[in-house]
């Protein structure tokens, strides 16, 4: 798929109050180890993760998450997703948002290169203030998308607290290791009719 815009951002879009409430609520919930596709599939199949599964996972992703589905979160975020979808020229026909993934990246935690799309259609089922953490940059990899763009691009536009970045899930991205403090993020996957 050729895109004119690989991501769209809104700097400091969310109020400090919303960010504070989200972090307070997210950190008050029971967190769990963040998984990737392979480990998630094993859990869904009723299999337990073995020690070697955890070791393998931590080579790719090391963070903790909480799943959130509170309406007040969607109400605040979804207008930006609609606006980005239109202004970026994607015009995806989305009609469903999955549970929100509130992620905590502590010292040295990260999420290596990945994309959030699968080889089959889905079934229809932002940051803390940068002065509070260092590292943890979001980067995109365009090597397979546009030879005229730099291979790796840091998404510096969302460094300010309360910023939002929206991008199609097939775009490769990573979160670099946090070198100081704690980085919080909120991820929402938005789904619609599959491409034909």
Describe this structure in words.
- By secondary structure, the protein is an alpha+beta fold.
- Helices cover 24% and strands 29% of the residues.
- The protein contains 4 helices and 15 strands.
- The chain has helices at 16-28, 37-44, 51-60, 71-87, and strands at residues 8-10, 32-33, 61-62, 64-68, 94-97, 100-105, 110-114, 133-135, 138-141, 152-154, 164-166, 172-175, 178-181, 183-187, 190-192.
- The protein is globular, with a radius of gyration of 17 Å.
Low-confidence segments: 122-128
State the major sheet. Answer: 5 strands, antiparallel
Which structural class matches the secondary elements? alpha+beta
Total strand segments: 15
Tell me the strand percentage band: 25-35%
Count, helices: 4
Average pLDDT value?
Answer: 87
Q: What series of H and E elements makes up the topology?
A: EHEHHEEHEEEEEEEEEEE
Report, as a whole number of angstroms, the end-to-end distance: 13 Å
Spatial order of strands in the largest sheet: 3-7-12-9-10
Helix amount? 10-25%
Tertiary shape: globular
Radius of gyration: 17 Å
């Amino acid at each position: 798929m050729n895109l004119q815009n690989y991501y769209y951002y809104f700097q400091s879009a969310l109020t400090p109050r919303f960010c504070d409430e989200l972090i307070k609520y997210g950190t008050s919930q029971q967190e769990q180890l963040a998984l990737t596709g392979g480990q998630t599939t094993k859990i869904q199949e009723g299999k337990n993760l073995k020690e070697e599964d955890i070791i393998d996972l931590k080579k790719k992703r090391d963070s903790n998450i909480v799943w959130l589905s509170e309406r007040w979160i969607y109400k605040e975020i979804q207008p930006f997703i609609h606006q980005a979808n239109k202004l970026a020229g994607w015009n995806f026909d989305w009609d469903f948002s999955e549970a929100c993934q509130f992620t905590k990246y502590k010292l040295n935690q990260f999420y290596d290169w990945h994309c959030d799309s699968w080889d089959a259609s889905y079934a229809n089922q932002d940051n803390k203030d940068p002065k509070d953490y260092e590292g943890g940059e979001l980067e995109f990899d365009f090597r397979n998308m546009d030879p005229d763009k730099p291979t790796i691009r840091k998404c510096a536009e969302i460094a300010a607290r309360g910023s939002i970045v929206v991008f199609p899930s097939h775009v490769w991205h990573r979160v670099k290791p946090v070198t100081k403090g704690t980085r919080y993020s909120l991820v929402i996957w938005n789904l619609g009719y599959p491409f034909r």
